[in-house]
Amino acid sequence: MQEIKDFQKDETKRDSINGHLLGSNKEEDFQRRFTFYSNTAAKLDSIEKAKLSFDDQINLELLQYNINDEISSYKFKSYLNPILSDEGFHTGLAAMGSEVLDSKKEFENYILKLKDIPRYVDEHLELMRRGLKTGICQPRSILKGYENTYQQHIVSDFQKSVFWKPFIKKPFGITDEDWKKISEDGKEAIQLYVVEGFKKIKTFFDKEYLPLTRITIGVSNFPNGLAYYQDRVHHYTSTDLSYEEIYQLGLKEVARIKNEMLQVMKDVKFKGSLKDFIASLRTNPKFYAATPEQLLKEASYISKKADGQLPKLFSLLPRQPYGVEAVPAHLAPTYTGGRYAGASITSKRAGHYWVNTYNLKSRPLYVLEALTLHEAVPGHHLQIALTQELDQLPEFRRNLYVNAFGEGWGLYSEYLGTEMGFYKDPYSQFGRLTYEMWRACRLVLDVALHTKGWTREQGVTYLSENTALSLHEVNTEINRYISWPGQALAYKIGELKIRELRKRAEDKLKDKFDVREFHRVVLSQGTVTMKILEQMVDKYIDEKNGATVSSRDTVN
Question: For the chain, which terminal residue's Cβ has fewer other Cβ atoms within 10 angstroms, N or C?
């Protein structure tokens, strides 16, 4: 929508004029954006959807989905809480140090961004102060070790800063004279602006935030907390399910998967309880890499093996490559076991599958196949890279991420491993099941932690007794669910819907069903809500069967 493009362009221009290259985050900025998005939402609601083409109906619904999230952020004041248990407003800044810079202009712009860090930090700290006063903040109990996210950037030697990385080697196209000034300016920017900015963060957490932040766990303790949580459930699952319905679904899924896990125990002739079996997996050294390099090599091997199986299941593959690398050291201690770090299709970087090599005793090899299929291919890299190549989509949709679709696709990709020749070893099969159980447990845990008064310790016990995740990862995961209400629900809800729609297509199309064609349909519109995805698959089934059903041409 042109009006939104113009507004975003004006915001960028406003920030640029004010020297705010990292964006402006004052209270009045959020108020201005809220007013704009509220007015835009009213205009979108007046559009007669039935008169639009099927593709434009999807455009409209996803635009509304995006705008409604902006409105909710202001309505519930969630912008006053700009940190999670393992990330925050400041952690993404370090990614600038990995940018590939070639020209004098690019370096000058990078240095200006570095100099903007103290102002950017100040604005976020002021938001967090307001959050403390209103009770919209993170619990103290989940922030143990959080200092790692900022402490590593407080360096006495500028050359040890991750922000110095672009200056290590002079690009061919820059003269020696220009390079001397660029290097000196970069050194000054790191010493006087970057380090000082992160010192401000440290002082704030040590003296203001940690002594005053809440001791309660669930967001039901926020002002209007239950309404906020239901809003997050709606956003992250893109369904109309209530949090109680999701909780009950979670209990059923946990029971079902547990039966499959018990069968694997029988297959390997293990004598003892599920708890005993999990304990043996956590303590047997054969299931753990001896070095970070070994873990990365194993992940790389699985990735390459998966690459070779893709044509069996997909008729369209992305052009953008991906690499395998360790989770950055400044994130690793409190980070999840692995994650996909995407890159713009126009950038000079590939996408990356990050593998956490911190604390190797907490990174079991028996889950590595499932992790790799989820984060690399056919999971996040394949789906996100293909979305960027859908030139027929509006720009906002090529960069949109609906969690239920993206994370549901990632979990579905773990399941696809059974069709790709993975999980031949019963322990890796148990690893797949423990990952599926992990996501089923989230349906129970997320709701219980935020609405049923569960303590952090109850959450840790529930997850540790039902999965073979390492105890380190159990603890970091529980912290994540507490800090990020609703997001953990997306995985299982999305995966169940994709598998439900695949079975529907298989049942109705019978011998006309082609899995490569089905996957192409699912991925054809980029990331979408579950309601839109169901409409897409039903439309595909009808067209494949030669039926003409007008209701399928409308996103209800």
Answer: C
Q: Over the stretch 102-143, which tens digit does the pLDDT of each residue have?
A: 999 999 999 999 999 999 999 999 999 999 999 999 999 999
Other CB atoms closer than 10 Å to residue 32's CB: what's the count? 16
DSSP state of 219: G
DSSP 222: S
**What are the C-alpha distances in Å from 176 to residues 57, 107, 110, 535?**
55, 14, 19, 60
Q: Distance between CA atoms of 475 and 320, rounded to whole angstroms? A: 35
354 - beta bridge partners?
A: 325, 339
Residue identified by tokens 């509304």 is 64
| Spatial contact of 481 and 455, defined as CB atoms under 8 Å apart | no
Verify cis geometry, omega within 30 degrees of 0, for the bond prior to 378: yes
Q: Which residues pair with 351 in a beta bridge?
A: 322
Cβ density class 73-98: b for 16+ within 10 Å, e for less: bbebbbbbbbbbbbbbbbbebbebbe
Lookup result for tokens 């209800």: 556
pLDDT-derived band at 551, boundaries 50, 70, 90: very low
pLDDT tens digit sequence for 252-286: 999 999 999 999 999 999 999 999 999 999 999 99
Other C-beta atoms lying within 10 Å of the C-beta of residue 49? 14
> pLDDT class for 202, splitting at 50, 70, 90?
very high
Question: DSSP string spanning 124-155?
Answer: HHHHHHHHHHHT-S--GGG-TTTTHHHHTT--
Cα angle 258, 464, 354; round to 5: 100
Q: Bridge partners of 339?
A: 354
Q: Which residues contact 282 (CB under 8 A, 6 or more apart)?
A: 364, 468, 470, 471
How far is 393 from 396, CA to CA, in rounded Å? 8
- Return the H-helix or E-strand segment holding 521: helix 515-523
- pLDDT(553) > 80: no
Q: Measured between alpha carbons, how far is 526 from 55 in angstroms, rounded to an integer?
A: 12
> Half-sphere exposure of residue 333, counting CA atoms within 13 Å on the CB side?
11
Q: H or E element: which one contains 348?
A: none
Q: Which string of DSSP letters, residue by residue, matches 231-289?
A: HHHHHHH-S---HHHHHHHHHHHHHHHHHHHHHHHHHTT--S-HHHHHHHHHH-GGGB-
Helix, strand, coil % in the chain, rounded to nearest 5: 70, 5, 30
Please give the full DSSP string across 28-52, using - where no structure is assigned: HHHHHHHHHHHHHHHHHHTS-GGGS
CA 478 to chain centre: 16
- What does the pLDDT read at residue 47? 96
For 319, other C-beta atoms within 10 Å of its C-beta total 9
Residue 29 is predicted with a pLDDT of 96
Q: Which amino acid is at 413?
A: S
Sign of the dihedral through C-alpha 509, 529, 228, 126? positive
